[in-house]
Amino acid sequence: MLELAVLGLLHESPLHGYELRQRLKATLGSFRAFSYGSLYPTLRRMKESGWIAEDEGDAEVVAGAPALTGKRGKVVYKLTAEGKERFTELLAEAGPASWEDEQFGVHFAFFAKTAPEVRVRILEGRRARLEERREGVRTSLARTRERLDSYTLQLQEHGLESVDREVRWLSELIETERNSIRSNPSTNPL
């Protein structure tokens, strides 16, 4: 998840570590678990893999990177050609991992750069996963309804309503994507 998010943000522009952290927080959302302690080891691994490079020195030399002060403000991370390829590969992944809560949000954040057919597969997979989860909760609720106190019951019903709302939203997105593909089959955001 973090790898895709970092590559996606650096695809937009080179960034200082601090600015990258801020944008990750904004991209992943304040309700997503994100450990800042995991960012720099991830950056180090990505650099070793050749996906990103560091520019140390004058930040004004790196186009698009805001000027910062201090030791960390001197390092600007930018995407390499291999990093662009890796980002494209990760965007094309539409398997079960991309349907889960954490991965879905990151994939969705970069949907503008994702091929329409891949977007549809991810949206359909996410919807199917939520429908499975919803049926499991409904079955469980039907068996235990009389044993639950009113607050636990309300919490379960609220969870079902939330899933129902997301399933409807996903269905609308899927229909919009399909219509877009039918009207312009050669669309490719990359």
> How much strand?
5-15%
Q: Looking at the structure, what is the overall shape?
A: globular
CATH architecture of the largest domain: Orthogonal Bundle
CATH top level class name of the largest domain: Mainly Alpha
**CATH homolog superfamily of the largest domain:** Winged helix-like DNA-binding domain superfamily/Winged helix DNA-binding domain
What's the SSE pattern?
Answer: HEHHEEHHHH
Low-pLDDT runs of 5+ residues are 58-62
Distance between the first and last residues' Cα: 20 Å
Radius of gyration: 20 Å
Helical stretch count?
Answer: 7
Widest beta sheet: strand line-up? 1-3-2
On the 0-100 scale, what is the average pLDDT? 86
What structural class is derived from the secondary structure elements? mainly alpha
If you had to describe this structure to a student in words, what would you say it looks like?
- The structure is a single chain.
- The protein has 190 residues and is mainly α.
- The chain has two domains: 2-92, Winged helix-like DNA-binding domain superfamily/Winged helix DNA-binding domain (Arc Repressor Mutant, subunit A, Orthogonal Bundle), CATH 1.10.10.10; 115-183.
- Helix content is 63%, strand content 6%.
- Strands 1-3-2 form a three-stranded antiparallel sheet.
- Helix 1 packs across helix 4 and helix 6 (116-144) runs antiparallel to helix 7.
- It is globular.
Layout of SSEs?
Layout: H1 2-12, E1 15-16, H2 17-28, H3 36-48, E2 52-56, E3 75-79, H4 81-92, H5 101-109, H6 116-144, H7 150-183
Antiparallel strand pairs: 1-3, 2-3
Helix pairs in contact: 1-2, 1-4, 6-7
